[in-house]
Fold this sequence. Notes:
This protein is α/β, with parallel strands linked by helices. It has helices at residues 10-21, 43-53, 68-71, 79-88, 124-133, 153-160, 199-203, 271-291, 307-319; strands at 4-7, 26-29, 34-39, 62-64, 93-98, 115-119, 137-138, 166-169, 180-183, 190-193, 236-237, 247-251, 261-264, 296-299. Residues 10-197 form the YrdC-like domain. Its EC number is 2.7.7.87.
Amino acid sequence: METLRLxxxxxxxxxxxxxxxxxxxxxxxxxxxxxxxxxxxxxxxVAGIYAAKDRPSFNPLIAHYASADAAFTDVVPTPLAEQLxxxxxxxxxxxxxxxxxxxxxxxxxxxxxATQAVRVPAHPLAHRLLQAVGRPVAAPSANxxxxxxxxxxxxxxxGLAGRIAAVIDGGPCAVGLESTVLDLSGDRPAxxxxxxxxxxxxxxxxxxxxxxxxxxxxAPRSPGQLLAHYAPRLPLRLAAETVAAxxxxxxFGPPLPGxxxxxxxxxxxxxTEAAAQLFAGLRALDTLGQSQGLRGIAAMAVxxxxxxxxxxxxxxRAAHPAK
Length: 323
Ligand code: TXA
Ligand code: MG
């Protein structure tokens, strides 16, 4: 299969919507990362996502909608869900809620769970695409399972060219990290994945959020968070205070001297800019480091506050891929 590269204009959108309605796989930009879309109500189309990504079938997918009203026809919102939707949708927040009895989303999308993750993305192109499709769209990050998430159309093609029908090229993603996943199906809200909507932002609405300790393997978390993730091919060393000439440096703020290659997440030490650059930086140093025969990537520390928590979560996973 040859993968079409579609422009982010009316013709590209119309083509993408028609492909999705016909059961094909189409990658598209969201404000977080590129998603690999399929009609979430079409079990065969969704099965194609798992196959194209080599994704384990027990790892559930998020259904995407053009509006909160549309999302809440498929899942049962709680009062807190409605409050958070009003505050953060469209935007980088995913809510896990019980499925409605007449939920349109195929069971395979939620990996057979009683809950379904739903999100209303803020990217204008994603919004127009979802409106044109008129059905829930299942979309994991558009990378091969376990690899670094894509923030450009070129990243998508790196992993999925020849395996999907098309990708819409909408330029780089603004947030650069996946959405925050909050489980509202239990007694207390549980943060399953740190992301674009920070814990600080959520705490303004709900004070009793369960936050899993990243070291505690028994804490509540998404099925997907147990897996190897975001793995560059070169080994990654965290909180580096020095760097060797045969290492690549992922810098934050003024770079450490002496590295064989440098990618600066944010020279100014800005966390939002660093989040947007993280996956592109890991990919760039991985490629450069391998071509220059470097032995690994050293990452400087990033402050653990606001979106820095999500950056550190992704860096820890990249450093310790659970094989
Ligand atoms: O920003 C994002 O969320 C991107 C864009 C494309 O929207 N999508 C994304 O999807 O990151 P994915 O599949 O790469 O990550 C979804 C995460 C996984 O960790 C999965 O296990 C979790 O959400 N998840 C999905 N449905 C769930 C459910 N019903 N219960 C618990 N966790 C769930
Ligand atoms: Mg992913």
